[in-house]
Amino acid sequence: MPPEESTLRPTLVPTRLALQAVAEHVLAAALHQATGHIGLRARPGGFATPPFPRPGPEGGATGPAPRIIAVAGTDLVVRDGVDERRAPLTTLRAAGDLAGITPGAPRDVYTPATPLDLDAPLPVDPTAAARLADWYALADEALERLLTDAADGASAVPSVQLWPEHFDLATSIGEVNYGASPGDDHHPLPYLYVGPWTLPPPEGAWWNEPFGASLSETHVGSVDDVVAFFREGRSRLGG
Fold it and tell me: Which residues constitute the domain of residue 53?
């Protein structure tokens, strides 16, 4: 069972905001500069970009080996093929230097949720970072199972992505968003959500949010619990 909010709040919220700043201003920035995309992925120990072309000296792609930038625990990891560089997360400036980019979220795509303060310390607590990584891993497995349900012979299915602007791991099936948030201004603890694009009529207490339904991590003990929540949402929406 996850720790109580009173125990998590002092470190979880600052850690979440620090990691989101790295996701927005370093990982998504580097990915967008190379590909025009911003969607990240859950990875063991944290999250990462998908593989993308390495930037060349003039800004173009270079070499066949792809680049991956990842957050693993409290470290930033940059992999170019078999070469790897790693350093603790300290500031956005230092993270940008390690990644070889100028930090800054792609403002032409969305308005960043975190400030671009290059030299502010990044207060990443190891225990809180591990808790968020475990949450993403749990949700990633559940969302992949949900997509398997939804595929049912379809030639293409959506992917599961970590969106830097909300820092949630999510996918869409039909016109419904299914995801896992690490928390936000209204939910200090991580939570699951089902967000239909068109809200259904009120139905008891299940639709408990203005955007649809949520379930706090305090009620989640396994991947099966996550899958059950998402499937309940699909069922109620006729999926």
Answer: 5-124
Helix residue spans in the chain (DSSP H): 5-22, 28-35, 92-99, 126-151, 223-236
Question: What secondary structure letter does DSSP report for 2?
Answer: P
Q: How many whole angstroms separate alpha carbon 96 and alpha carbon 92?
A: 6
Give the pLDDT confidence of 80-100 residue by residue, as tens digits. 988 999 999 999 999 999 999
Let me know whether 151 and 113 are in one domain: no
Band (pLDDT 50/70/90 cuts) for residue 59 is low
Domains of the chain: total: 2
Residue 192 is given by DSSP the state: E
Find how far residue 173's CA is from the centre of its chain: 18
- Give the 3-state secondary structure of residue 195: strand
pTM of whole model > 0.85? yes
